[in-house]
Amino acid sequence: MPHVDDPHAGRSATAPHGRLWTWLDERIGLGEIQALARKKEIPLHRHSVWYYFGGMTLFLFTIQVITGVLLLLYYRPSAEEAYESVQFLMAEVQFGWLIRSIHAWAANLMILTLFIHLFSTLLLAAYRRPREITWVSGVALMGLAMAFGFTGYLLPWNELAYFATKVGTEITGAVPVAGKFMLRLLRGGDEVTGATLTRFYGIHVAVLPLVATGLLGLHLFLVQRHGMSVPPTVERMTEGRRRAMPFFPNYFLRDVVGWLSALAILAALAAFMPAELGTKADPFAPAPIGIKPEWYFMFMFQTLKYLPAHIGPIEGEVVGILGFGLGGAFLLLIPFLDRWSARGERSRVFIWIGIAIIVYVIVLTYLGYTASPTQ
Amino acid sequence: MSGPPMTAVAGIAALVLLSPALAAARAVTSAPPSDRVAAPAGPAARPVAPAAAKPARDSCATCHLETGDDRLANPVKAYAGDIHLAKGFGCTACHGGDPNEDGMEAMDPKKGYIGAPDRRRAIQVCGRCHSDARFMRQYNPSLRVDQVTEYATSVHGRRLREQNDPRVATCTSCHPAHSIKPPSDPASSVHPLRVADTCGRCHADAKAMAAYRIPTDQRDKYRRSVHWKAMSVKGDLSAPTCNDCHGNHGAAPPGISWVGNVCGQCHSVQGELFGRSAHARVFTDIGVPGCVACHDNHEIHETGDAMLGLGDEAVCASCHKPDDKGGRTAVAMRGLIDSLATEHDGARALLTRAEHAGIEVSEAQFDLNGAKDALVKARAAIHGVTVDAVKQEIDGGLAIAAKAHARGVRALEELRFRRTGLAISVVIIAALIAALVLKIRQVDRRQAAGERQA
């Protein structure tokens, strides 16, 4: 943040903006914001395109907040009423179908852009000093986004959601030591019931948004604080050879083009493939064949299916869960493990690790949708 | 399918083998004297509780297995899977004798040994236990104990009693001795899926049936019926097989006047309506078996609306003409059924189209089930052969179908609205994007010019 001795210093330069501007500037310091926006620059290089995905994720998150609040006006979080309230919203409420469909699709697109944003950051080693906390907050936000997806998926209380949640929470139960406790904590009992629905609802609309807002604030503050990271090769260039673009309006306008494109895609998806409701959950009905989680959990789900019943003395599922736990911890700690990048050198090892993770996720996700459900 | 039947005859199977019961029965003598070995020629005493009947030795099985003669050894081997052995009964329970004796003394008639009972005697042997409610209650309280009584009323039993016919079925004909299993066991000869084969062993054998001059195509016809399809393809073991219509132990062909009662066991609404209809009386008068007249008996096919009316496939046309009252009634009923079927299908198609396009119409689809129900009721109502009763059901169904149709039309209008809305919003967004792109170029050019000047 630039240090400004006189909070109204920028005002004289922007006086021609009119009385309202002046009035606001005196109170909230518009001039400072303007000066900041003018000062902010976006580096230009051959990887600049990846910068757009952070903003795109933020845009989709905003859509989630807006549509989520609108859904709250009609949704009733109980096993008796949840399905019916969503059904009513879809069938009777003007544009209710559109709001729900956009909420469902934007969630998926947001996680996709978040993945792209995260992995581009990883491959460009943008997590290196001094952006370690930016990376950690970003990885935590990814975890939150997945938690948003997991808890939100159950809320319509339909058959698929019910059984997917049952399977998902069962996996939590396999965690050593604390598994049983976590399972009961998540479900609000031994089984997935109305208590689970109410719990997931509370987490989805209150706990996660609160934590996400705080983390997002920190993440954006740090991005602003450190500016955009550039790849080490660009960083080593002399000042004169580096190219940049003003954030406002040049980059911002480009950002808006991306957002509008995302909006058009969302509208098309909502109109041609509206979110389905399916049949109401029946805890006593047998689970339908081929229950699958949301696509962003598929690689983990498929991995657990491939693991043998026992690996040495430990259950295969437990090994898998521990593996993913360690994987998450490794991802979180990458900035502190990658010594090469910290020294400004190119870190081949971590680039290959990043590529390996991407390939692994893509292949396992693909197998999850194509392999036989019994494999 | 009946559960009791086969277990009833089950006792027979226990005849040849291991022998715990008799000696113990004699020792304990808890049964009344009449139940015990009455005479040298009489059947073995009714066994007591299996625990008490467990013999210290079992010479029957030992000798029969050691002889090397399959005729003697096979019953012992087969009995290993018999329900009676599982309940603790050995050879002597049916055959008598003394398993504690070695050699031929074990088969001393003085010790109650009766050898292999003939067909007639088998009924007595089985009935000794299976007709005793107090005794059977210890093993299977829900099992009926009237098999022998019922058998006496059956065609099989009457022929055996009145004509001493040696070929009629007795207990062991359907419940093979030494390998009797409960009807719930898929390997049992009286499991629902195997009953037709069990009956067909005799009834589908032209040679065996030649003397009785009865058809032998019942099993094959049944195999083409909707009932067999329900059982074998859909896995509905409650679907009828031979014994559900003919009885099992009291097996007999249904009479003309009460065939409706037989079908009415399951098709109760149709049976009741038919019973009150003009058809019921007329059919009885002219000697036509009720339901069978239109639906056949063993080869009952899936019904359809084409059976009604005077069309090519209509069964009504075999008796009625277009200008008689019955013919007019048939045509009117068919017209009503067709009208609701058409309306229902049309509404369903509209709603399905809307559903596939992503419109939420599940409530309308659920409501439309009411029209389907009305159609089912109307199809049942035709058995009463009155147009008014059918019309009453159809009118209710038509009102429901009309509402669902209107909701389907609204849903498709909504779909068009969505598509149009999408097209308009995409055009607006595209225009905004185009404007932004132009603005970006302008900003870039202005900036580049500024830099050049600088």
Can you describe what's shown?
The complex is a heterodimer of chains A (375) and B (454). Chain A is mainly alpha-helical and 375 residues long. Chain A has helices spanning 11-14, 19-28, 30-39, 52-72, 82-91, 96-123, 132-154, 159-173, 179-187, 194-226, 232-235, 247-272, 298-306, 316-337, 339-342, 348-370, and strands at 41-44, 243-246, 310-311, 314-315. Chain A has 2 domains: 1-39, no CATH class; 49-286, Cytochrome Bc1 Complex, Chain C, CATH 1.20.810.10. Chain A has a two-stranded antiparallel ribbon. In chain A, strands 3-4 form a two-stranded antiparallel ribbon. In chain A, a hairpin with a 2-residue loop joins strand 3 and strand 4. The longest helix of chain A is centred in the middle third of the chain and has 33 residues, at 194-226. Chain A is globular and about 70 Å long. The N and C termini of chain A lie far apart (55 Å). Residues 1-14 of chain A have low confidence and may be disordered. Chain B folds into 3 domains: 4-180, no CATH class; 255-301, no CATH class; 325-422. Chain B has 24 helices and no strands. Chain B has helices at residues 4-13, 20-28, 50-53, 59-66, 70-78, 83-86, 92-95, 119-130, 133-137, 147-153, 155-163, 171-174, 195-203, 206-209, 218-223, 226-232, 242-246, 259-264, 268-276, 278-286, 290-295, 325-356, 362-381, 387-453. The radius of gyration of chain B is 36 Å and the shape is elongated. The termini of chain B are far apart. Chains A and B meet through helix 5, helix 6 and helix 12 of A and helix 24 of B.
